[in-house]
Amino acid sequence: MDRKIATIQDVARAAGVSAATVSRTLSRPAVVAEATREAVLSAIAQTGYRVNATASNLRRQRTGTVIVLLPNIANPFFSQILAGLSSILTPARYGMLIADTKSGPDPQDRLADYLASGQADGLVVLDGTISPATLEMPSRPPAVAVCEWTQSAMPSVRVENDRGAALAVAHLAELGHRRIGHVAGPPANVLTRARLEGYRRALEMHGLPVRDDWVLEGDFTMASGAAAAEVWLAMAERPTALFLSSDEMAVGFIGAVQRAGFRVPRDVSIVGFDNIEIAQHLSPPLTTIRQPRTRLGIRAAEILLSMIESGTRDERSEVIEVELILRGSSGPPPAGTR
Amino acid sequence: MDRKIATIQDVARAAGVSAATVSRTLSRPAVVAEATREAVLSAIAQTGYRVNATASNLRRQRTGTVIVLLPNIANPFFSQILAGLSSILTPARYGMLIADTKSGPDPQDRLADYLASGQADGLVVLDGTISPATLEMPSRPPAVAVCEWTQSAMPSVRVENDRGAALAVAHLAELGHRRIGHVAGPPANVLTRARLEGYRRALEMHGLPVRDDWVLEGDFTMASGAAAAEVWLAMAERPTALFLSSDEMAVGFIGAVQRAGFRVPRDVSIVGFDNIEIAQHLSPPLTTIRQPRTRLGIRAAEILLSMIESGTRDERSEVIEVELILRGSSGPPPAGTR
DNA sequence: CGCTTGCCTGCAAACGATTACATCATCGCC
DNA sequence: GGCGATGATGTAATCGTTTGCAGGCAAGCG
Questions:
Q1: Which of A26, A28, A69, A258 is most deeply packed, by most CB within 10 A?
Q2: CATH number, domain at B229?
């Protein structure tokens, strides 16, 4: 009988027990007698039975699915977090439903749909721009945010963005730079604000000039890094070093200034943020702030799972450490600029 | 009553009709009387009813979910395809269940689980190394592969890998190169074979030497590209140009030879494959073969959907065109090497 | 020997939707 | 006026599991 999938009834019949006993054998083996258990297990093996998750979920009022909200799947930054999430959720037999908040019609509505219809046991929010109101549904499942999130009381996992920025600035200051610029992320993003703040405070702490015209606006993409390079090239008084809020922007920036005939770090020092894989393969390799994205995903998944399984709303948030990775894109400032 | 989610029964009661009528109003509005329909719709709005997908799926013997098998979520190459898939599947109200075939215990078994328990209405295979046997389950749902796939009769969407390789070689040959090497992908991967074959045939067609020691083995990663560079650097008689089977490997290769003091394309010309975003931001920008990854995902999703909805096994495969993108990493060979 | 106590197991009722079939009213037509 | 056709709605079975409850049986105890 290869045609149809065996049901719990088929197994029960084969083992000469009731469906209830089969179910118990699977969920709480301890309560069924040894002999029965063996009979059931062999019947399962023989019939090739697999529990039908849909039926099980319906009965148990759960879904076995976690929704992951992100603004853009194609961004490698998020995919690393996804990998971390997956490494925890998959073994725990939870599926991940990826919801691209930017694609498709009416994403807000679709989201509400998912949440309200109990489509998911949990929610991971990677999109820093989702309106918190959307998430305040009466019957929202446990959720965890992977970014700072001030408005909502949702537990979160995040990195020390301000400290990362401070590390970058401190490193450049120690090298002797006194004119340190910054390329920020999109203004609406919470990460942007934290890193910008960290940058500003670190400059002050080192007694360095804080100049608004040395803070350029980007959007984390390579293209915006390249655009920032054009602005830098056109400046009358250029910073001798730049801290960029993402490695991707740093890649774009470095490529653009190199093509314009400048050398890194001889003419300008660069520090990125993220430590994406390519950072070490660039020439020069990129000095950056390591952000353990896989770990972010892992911790988020762990927190979410514990909330789901315990049924409690754990409000504990977690901050993950960052670290300066010293490579070749930062060096002493050009002579005569001190 | 914000506590619990309204069921179809609640709606029926509120509208003064039976549950069946509510269901019909939603699925086949034409068959219910105008007045009834309005009453039902207003009751739905009033109760905030959302159909419970789990129950619906159980009854209709479907899942509303498509499984996507991939070897590594964190790879930006795949995430672009995912974005394409998502842009079609999400509006069609199918969820994507991402299954990382490399993570977690016993991936093969987990996969079999998913398929056998009818967890999914469809399957997208992005992993070129999955054993076809695994996919030949008696009750496998419609599936589509996004790569060449010779063993199985599964429909597929793929790019002209051999032609891409030929384009790369032709370009280098036209520039005057006569010693053209190749860095291949992992041997088990079908893409590897197609590109390697295309490379070899193109060399022959141009009357150029085909030397096995000029074919290096990689695995598509930047690290393996850097490793290939070490091998190249140590060669007694070096190729003056290389075609690499992925842009990531090209990035690793270029970085490594640049750090060793070589210049691209002055000392060696490089052509990659994929046209990932970073290609244009490198210095020099990377000449490569464009592979429309988003479109691959879109077409795969469209084919899969049509198979699911029509219930037929559409065996049609589709080949998507590639294109040579001319940038700065390729140029004439060093003097005296012709 | 009778009664309590545990241990297993089966019965049957959910879970929430869909849909084949039955029912009933209405209408048109001869 | 009777009869079939048509259209709208309700009834109830069904999808495959899980689980509260109860029953049966054996052992232990007084």
A1: A69
A2: 3.40.50.2300
Backbone phi and psi for residue B7, each to the nearest 5 degrees, phi listed first: -105, 175
Q: Do residues A256 and A185 both lie within one domain? A: yes
Same domain? A32 vs A86: no
CB crowding B172-185: b at 16 or more within 10 Å, else e: bbebebbbbbbbbb
Residue with the bigger pLDDT between B338 and B211: it is B211
Check A90 against B104: CB less than 8 A apart: yes
B17 touches strand D (CB under 7 A): yes
* CA distances for B103 relative to A302, B106, B116, angstroms: 16, 8, 20
Cα distances (angstroms) measured from residue B44 to each of B8, B19, B84, B241: 9, 12, 34, 67
Please write the tens of the pLDDT for every residue from B32-72: 999 999 999 999 999 999 999 999 999 999 888 898 888 87
B74 to A96: CB separation less than 8 angstroms, yes or no = no
Q: Is residue B213 part of a domain?
A: yes
Residue A58: C-alpha distances to residues A316, B55, B76, B319 (Å): 30, 6, 36, 41
Nucleic strand D under 7 Å from the C-beta of B59: yes
Q: In terms of domains, do B154 and B170 share one?
A: no
Q: Which domain holds residue A26?
A: 8-51
Q: Both B302 and B253 in a single domain?
A: no
- Considering the domain architecture, whether residues B185 and B215 belong to the same structural domain is answered as yes
What residue is closest to D15 (Cα–C1')? Answer: B59
Tell whether A285 is covered by a domain: yes
Do both A123 and A77 map to the same domain?
yes
Of B65, B79, B251, the CB nearest to A79: B79
**Which chain B residues contact residue A5 at CB under 8 A?**
116-118, 139
Q: Is A252 within 8 Å of chain B by CB? A: yes
CA of residue A10 to C1' of nucleotide D22, angstroms = 25
**Per-residue confidence (pLDDT) for residue B104, from 0 to 100:** 55
Task: Note whether A103 contacts B83, CB cutoff 8 Å.
Answer: yes
- What's the whole-number mean pLDDT along residues B218-227? 95
- Lowest average pLDDT, out of A96-105, B89-98, B129-138, B259-268, goes to B129-138
Shared domain for A31 and A95, answered yes or no, is no
Same domain, A139 and A167: no
Q: Which comes out higher in pLDDT, residue B126 or A247? A: A247
Strand, coil or helix: B106: coil
Give the residue from A57, A70, A73 with the most B CB atoms within 10 Å of its CB, the best one to mutate: A73
Q: What is the pLDDT of residues A103-133, one digit of tens each?
A: 655 666 666 666 665 678 898 988 766 666 6
Find where tokens 């390329």 sit: A183
